[in-house]
Write the structure tokens for this entry.
Amino acid sequence: MTAQFFYDADREKKNAARAKALQALLIEKGVITSKTVDTVLGYFETKMGPFNGAKAVARAWVDPAYKERLVADTAAALAELEFPEGMAGAEGEHMKAVANGDGVHNLIICTLCSCYPWPVLGLPPYWYKDPTFRSRAAREPRAVLKEFGLEVPSETEIKVWDSSAQIRWFVVPERPAGTDGLSEEQLAALVTPESMMGVAVAKAA
Amino acid sequence: MLTNFEQFAVTSMMGAADTPPRANGGLCFSEEWERTAFGVALALAREGHFEWEDFRQQLIVSIDGWEKSHELDDASWNYYERWLAALEAAVVESGLSTRDEIEARVAESEFADAKIPGAKQ
């Protein structure tokens, strides 16, 4: 085991050295700059991702009027928040939010990954594009959710929304109990991508 | 429809053989060099130094090569190691650099004197 560990550590070092050498070479040639990697990754880490959806959901939790607007006109409601450019543009204008509550639990599925509401949910999990998941979720959502560890009460209706190129759905989960004193930012931290897909609910920390 | 290159690039890999590891809606990098390799590849394709699809083909070949020479449950599998190999191949093929130039630079690097199996000393 020890030998294996050292081998792996060396391999890490070797890969790190190769990546760094290649980057340095390309910077020296003027092909990229020292900021290029951060710029590319910034897109995934700070601009477009589940943190945007979480921000909108947290706002909906503290402001019922915003929640109504978010469901009635998702694009306009998202545009109210200070999201990076592009959020409510060509991609965002097709997004629609559905809210859990009043005896309804929502679940979103999609056939094509290009239909995933990336700006609010980030990258889809690996199982999401699995045709088996999609077809079973459409046919027997209650059983599928149970497999995800989410037991939806029998009196709660489950609505399944299939995203398409025209409309990309996301779920506004219910605010968890025991979160009265939390700030909007603290609330946003409770909103997981899974809860906005409807395969989980938001839970108090 | 897909107006942003970063989004297009990653979306095109979803559900495919070269789909990158991810969790909680984000990409997963276990080390800084993985992030570097990812960012450099996307930037080069975005700037038109090579086609994204060509890079993906290199990556698929690189993944395939590993899978053929290792057990499926080999714990030493590293997605970004395959990515880095594909990136080097794409950089050489596009004429941005040569294999010799890359190897020379690696040899000069601060890790070159470490006893690294498989590294050119």
